Amino acid sequence: MMTTSYVMLVDDEVPFVETMTKRLDRRGLKIISASGGEEALKKLKENDTVDVIILDVKMPGMDGIETLQEIKKIYPLKEVIMLTGHATVETAIEGMKLGAFDYLMKPCDIDVLVAKVDEAAKKKKSHDAKIEQARIDKLVLRRGYD
């Protein structure tokens, strides 16, 4: 089992969010929920611990694709799993081109979703570790020239 992952669940359907939060929490994930794109961006700004975002495609106001674009612009290393009950091949391709980690149909199997979250969190943590190592290497190198 890996270290605890922090997941943001973004969906405008409150009953879905409540159910998924309980189910994912039972599997050891820490869940932060948002009911739309604007709220998700605000909560991401306040909470740096989020590793993976599970993002609904169809939402009023800022939809999932627009939210994905903003997340990737501001937080390029955060992994995003797109989730929708209204999937089209075009939307899936667009989401993947824009940097989504993966794309799942609602209703999705909870074990499949948890496996995707684990994969996405491992990828993010690996990137974080490489960046941290590069910073350390740069400091060590700089000290060598002092």
Structure commentary:
Helix 2 runs parallel beside helix 3 (64-74). Strand 3, helix 3 and strand 4 (79-84) form a beta-alpha-beta unit. The protein contains 5 helices and 5 strands; from the N terminus they run βαβαβαβαβα. The mean pLDDT is 91. The chain has helices at residues 14-26, 37-46, 64-74, 89-97, 110-145; strands at residues 6-10, 30-34, 52-56, 79-84, 102-105. It is of the alpha/beta class. A 5-stranded parallel sheet has the order 2-1-3-4-5, with helices on both faces. The chain has one domain (6-145): Rossmann fold. The chain is globular and about 55 Å long.
Q: Gap between N and C termini, in Å?
A: 43 Å
Main sheet makeup: 5 strands, parallel
Number of helices: 5
Large-scale geometry: globular
Query: Assembly state here?
Result: single chain
Total of domains = 1
What name is given to the CATH topology? Rossmann fold
Q: What does the radius of gyration come to?
A: 16 Å
State mean pLDDT (0 to 100 scale). Answer: 91
> Which class in CATH terms?
Alpha Beta
Beta-strand portion reads 15-25%
Helix content: 40-55%
Please tally the β strands and state the result. Answer: 5
Specify the structural class.
alpha/beta
The poorly predicted ranges are none
- Trace the largest sheet across and list its strands: 2-1-3-4-5
Order of helices and strands: EHEHEHEHEH
In CATH, the architecture is: 3-Layer(aba) Sandwich
What is the CATH superfamily label?
A: Response regulator
